[in-house]
Amino acid sequence: MSLITVELEPCELKQIHPEAVQLARAALGGAARLERALLMLKAVADETRLRILVSLAATELCVCDLAVLTEVSESAVSHQMRYLRDASLVVSDKRGRVVYYRLADEHVHQLVESLLSHAGEAH
Fold first, then answer.
1. What is the DSSP code (8-state) at residue 11?
2. Which domains does the chain have, with CATH numbers?
3. What pairing do the DSSP bridges indicate for beta strands 90-95 and 98-103?
């Protein structure tokens, strides 16, 4: 593998924009908030988990249904559901002996829909 070296020109005018920096710093919030957001993005970055989230955006489903849709074992789906629950992306509801999963809230639904919409755009 060959490395490419690129020389970057230094800024001709080094200028800090305090108002913009203050706005951006406020948007960053605390470290705990960013850590939670990072956990959510890591959860979405896995193909099986993304397939689960997209499926759950359509309707609530049980592990058996999700195993069929994702083409992985029920055990693997259960493991992924634990990851998605820990990331606060899904919630469960037990009815009798069957546990049904759905997206945690409208924010998660909007996230999934936005991802799919953006992915469908021609760039």
1. P
2. 38-118 (1.10.10.10)
3. antiparallel
List, for residues 79-110, the tens digit of each pLDDT value.
999 999 999 999 999 999 999 999 999 999 99
Helix ranges (H only) for 1-123 are 18-28, 31-44, 47-58, 63-70, 74-86, 106-120
Return the SS3 of 37.
Answer: helix
Query: How many CA atoms are closer than 13 Å to the CA of 56, on its beta-carbon side?
Result: 32
Answer yes or no: is pLDDT of 14 > 90: no
Give the Cα-Cα-Cα angle 96, 103, 55 (nearest 5 degrees).
Answer: 90
Handedness of CA 71, 74, 80, 85 (dihedral sign): positive
CA separation, residue 59 to residues 9, 50, 65 (Å): 52, 15, 11
pTM > 0.90: yes or no = no
